[in-house]
């Protein structure tokens, strides 16, 4: 997976070097000391209703030549959509297969969280279909403002939903290994349903601001309409999104990552202390944890650094690399079914182990 990440970054460095010949300064000129919270900055010229062509509905935005080059460059129009297509070809059939298999299981309490994870991954991958068309069309969005908001909210919302599903599943495995008696007490269908509904509702609410801001803009002097990549930094509501986005990263990635790190560390420690041979399961758990960090850490770290650099230095160049790092999140969505299968096959469907209270307890290894 690290090789995939390096392969994604190499074209970015070559493309970035080429764009430096056009503009060596990525500093934003902010007339009123306001900051664009996430995407490329631009200055709104006039709403679409004031144009001579009445069919144009998007407001027109003025951006620098460097931003246009990054938006329409090879990385954005070829490499990113190619990565999305690969993830879709693998992830959509595999997640559908997982959903079909889980729907036939009788023990719902152990399936609900996995079912939620598969649904989240499938929705994320399906949201890539319009984004692939957008990138392959030279970053020209033709589906309208509302569709842009839906795709943006679905894409980012399901990323955080997937992270929280992984956190809940890892906690469930932790309880099964370290606290087996508590695990049997809490292993109820309504607990799993409540947990699943909770992170779905929280993820949906967290995406509400995406529907409150303009997402699509027509670039001045260019025959293209962008979706989410270029936004105006002049409005006060957009500036207020900076602390919101930072808190979203902290609660949506940093906090779950800390929990997952503690959980997998505890699982490996306790299994290593057991008299039974759990080496294969420990290796599989380490692999799952490592792939989680490789897929989700780069984009969230880059996004956090982007906010800090934008706020302190008024520069936006890190967003260019962030867009490519987001591809790794889509790769994780197509890898989830295979990782779950790997954990299942590293031990028998039911295993016996001696707990630290010297009692024998049957626990599903897939928990």
Automatic annotation (TrEMBL):
Keywords per UniProt: Cell membrane, Disulfide bond, G-protein coupled receptor, Glycoprotein, Membrane, Receptor, Signal, Transducer, Transmembrane, Transmembrane helix
Disulfide bonds, paired cysteine numbers: 148-227
Example of a GO MF term: thrombin-activated receptor activity
Span of domain G-protein coupled receptors family 1 profile: 94-340
Stored Gene3D superfamilies: Rhodopsin 7-helix transmembrane proteins
GO BP, one annotated term: positive regulation of Rho protein signal transduction
Keyword presence, Amino-acid biosynthesis: no
Source organism superkingdom: Eukaryota
Endpoints of the signal sequence: 1-19
Protein name, per record: Coagulation factor II (thrombin) receptor-like 2
Native species: Cyprinus carpio (Common carp)
Upper classification of the organism: Eukaryota, Metazoa, Chordata, Craniata, Vertebrata
